[in-house]
Amino acid sequence: MSGKSARYCFKQGLINIKRNKLYSIASIGTVAACIFLISVILAIIINVNYMEKKLEQQVGVTVFFENNTTQEKIDEIGKLIKADKLVKSLKFTSAEKAWNEFKKDYFKDDPDLAKGFEKNNPLANSASFTIYLKNIKAQEKFAKAVKKIDGIRKVKHSRKAKATLTNLERLLGYASIVLIVILLGVGIFLISNTVMIGINVRSEEIKIMKLIGSTNSFVRAPFVIEGVVIGLIGSLIPLVVLFVAYQNLIQLIINKFGVFARNISFAPQSMVFTILIPIGLGIGVGIGLLGSFFSIRKHLKV
Question: What are phi and psi of 130, to 5 degrees?
Answer without folding.
Answer: -105, 120
